[in-house]
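REVIEWER CHECKLIST
Item 1: Sequence provided? yes
Item 2: Single chain? yes
Item 3: Sequence as submitted:
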Amino acid sequence: MKYYCLLLSVLLGSLALSQDKLTTPKRNTLRLEKADQATDYKKDRYLLNYVNPFIGTGGHGHTYPGASAPFGMMQLSPDTRYQGWDGCSGYHYSDSIIYGFSHSHLSGTGVEDYCDLLIVPQTGEPKTIPGYLNPEKGGYGATFSHQKEKASPGYYTVELDNGIKAELTTTQRSGIHRYTFPKDGQKRSILIDLTHRDKLLKYGIQELSKREISGVRISSSWAKEQHLYFFIVTSTDAIRSQLIDDGAKLLLEFPETIETLELRVGISAVDEKGAQENLMKELTEDQTFESVKKATEDLWLKELSAVIIDTTDKNQATNFYTALYHSYLAPNLFSDVDGRYRGLDGKIHQSNNNANQYTVFSLWDTYRATHPWYTLFQKERTYDFITTFENQFLHSGDLPVWELAGNETHCMIGYHSASVIADAYVKGLKQIDVPLFIHGLETTANLDEFGKTDFNNQGFINCKKEPESVSKTLEYAYDSYCIYTFLSAAKQEGFTVKDSLINIFYKRAFNFINSFDPQTGFMRPRHGGIWHSPFKPEEVNFHFTEANSWQYSLYAPHAIPVLSQLLGGPEGLKKWLDNLFSASSKLAGNAQADITGLIGQYAHGNEPSHHIAYLYNYTGSPEKTAVIVDSILYHYYHNTPDGLSGNEDCGQMSSWFVFSSLGLYPVSPGTGIYDFGRPLFKSAELRLENNKKIRITAVNNSKNNKYIQEIKVDGKTYKKRYITQKELEGCKSIEFTMGPYPSAEYRTYAVAPSMDSLPASFVAVPYFTNQSTSFEKQTSIGISSAGKGLTFYYTLDGSTPSNQSKKYKKPFTIKHATTVKAIAYNPETKQYSEVISNDFRPKPEGISLVLKSVYQQQYAASGDGALIDGLFGTHEFRSGDWQGFYNMDVAGTVTFQKGKTFNKIGLSALQSTRSWIFPPKSVAFTLVYEDGTTETVTIDLEEHPKAGNSPEKPIRFEHQPNQKPVKSIQFNAVNYGVNPEWHVSPGYPTYIFLDELYFE
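Item 4: Structure as written out by the authors:
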């Protein structure tokens, strides 16, 4: 927040930031400004010097520094961590021990996996247990210092403190380890450890000769069944070998006289034969370590030289080319040299049409900027990615969400393969199987999963039924838009597409309106017709995905004019943005490590915010986009290990920088449009795959001159704040003239087109204005909507309302338990909304509760009286109905104003063991009767949760008391204790989740 004060003045109308005191650095001898003279990418070898693979290895970037080819199957890198969130890639810059070098790594994810097939070079008496599992007696692993560690594209080296120098390089599917041992006369050994990291399901190591080893490692972690097969060839005969730990480890000893040992390793997800073929075809006998390293460097040069920037700032040059490098580390090649690959059905398939298959699709992240970047510079691979989606649909019946190693993880939300497909298609990638994707997109959108059915039928997702309901509603609306654009474009190309199908998705694209609360101006969770309360826009909770309402309320990138109108028009959008960027950065609710890089409540460290800075382009103050983008470019990307503000997320964090530094950003993939922002460099030459060159120039550009004054395309004045892909690929030059102050002329430039009119069939779903469905003696029911000019009809008898039902004129009162249903009607279009329904019921009278235990604020339900409000929760702990108590018993007293006789009393708890929520071991009730007598009863848990046999469900503890008036009831729910040994996180304290004390 040290930049908050600088931003605030501009965001509130001041131009103080334009007087930036930072000076332009003097030109150095890098001569980057002359790079555009090169036409052969191999002449641009200096670009390798501007890639720093250590960026993101510190902080929460979660990147790895090791060797990989662009989009390569193998990522050969050191492992310094066994587990943990900041060890997702297997490496963290703050560590001082390298345990070994493994062959698969994830770049910047928020969940750990991979790091398969660990190779451990050793000198002296070999050790077979890792140091992290045997810290007292000592295990394998060597200390190191970063001063003796280097990394560049396709190459990694480190000299360990035990004297062993390790060097790594790769081809696409294979790699070479080169170990140089100290001249100490001690034993030289290599340990192959298959037990490293995740749970083994099946494994095997086979020695084929003194130099050849093959094997298999099938494991379960994030990917529930990951197959890795390997084939290893050593440069020297092993003199001894020993299988250890039931054959999960192989220790190879080599002559003490050798100084250098090479291991050549091929991997495959298909079988051991595939691994051997990958190795033999890609690493022939005549290839040396140096020749392989150079060949992979050449592959990287080809990718890096697609953009030649002109700058004298070495750090910014490094930030740019490292970002480009990170953007090309994933997705990863998944098919073998013979075209075979493992499908989502677990079977082996043969790729056709010479299309490679890929894996690691972090689509919730990468659809935003990484895949749009590929539509410019990786068209052939984009075709392969979409062909991969095609095969994944054929093998599983669903388009991918977050596919990993032949497994669908269903991590994150939405189905943004729709965005990748639509964006590529509208940008001219027409050779895909259009009829299959028409079917695949419709099928995926209509599957009964993750709240899709409610979204499709109700127009929003009920937060009582589905977690992250707001985020899912908004992102499904965007995905619906992408399907609409794809279907519309396909029909224009002559494919058979029913208008009725196009209209369905056109209507669904506006469902985000149903999550908008006009009273607060925020997107909010709702159950039926009621907004979930209490509500704080800064609160991070389970109604949003890794975010809060501040960060999600502007998520309608496909329909910005409609979103703007909800906020009061362009001026209202500007004011909302000003408030966002100037708000306090303090968060409430759940602790969420992903929400980082804060400017006010904007969070650059996580993807939901990534388009927001560009929304000023849709207001009367487009210069404020330049202010925010400039601040992010300079303050949230650094040439340091902790130089990223959040997880790299398989390229998205870097792709934002790459696009934005060129003055472009795809606010809404699927439109084929790029918004202008703030170019960072004096010039940049874009070299497309068809040998087309585009020069982007920023005249008078400097740290002070951040504001666009004028734009020319091919020398002609261009009065738009955006450019289409077709225009971009068709031009030769874009020239920005920059200045120190906002330009009045630029404010007149045209705004990018976006969905700006509602279909006649769309009518905003109404809502009840009540804060709760429970009330004291009576309550007043109000009905409203985010829509305009609507009429409401309602019923109180449970029947479905129509225009023949009672017409709503003003709030009405109910005094008894009542089911209220309502619809909105548009008299102009004669269309109805979906029906909303809620059960309103009076609270039990004459009852009070005193809790002696403190619930977690993020699991507060309706607050202090939640356990006696008459509202029961669902099987889903994230619905907001449950109160959560961590690592404690739960005790309290219920007092009745008048003595009451009960047939049954009970306490309702939740079982959701995967989330550390266990039912109480026992519940004790002490009843105090009006006659002065007491009764104490303890109810034990009938069936304790078991591994593999503990479904999510409510558990009720009930007792039938004596038939005489009760004055008060004391209760005590005993915490289950720590997670049992069978749990994924054994030994950690558990939660008790309660929703209701009930009486009959």
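Item 5: Key structural point noted by reviewer: The first strand starts at residue 67 and ends at 68.
Item 6: Recommendation: ____
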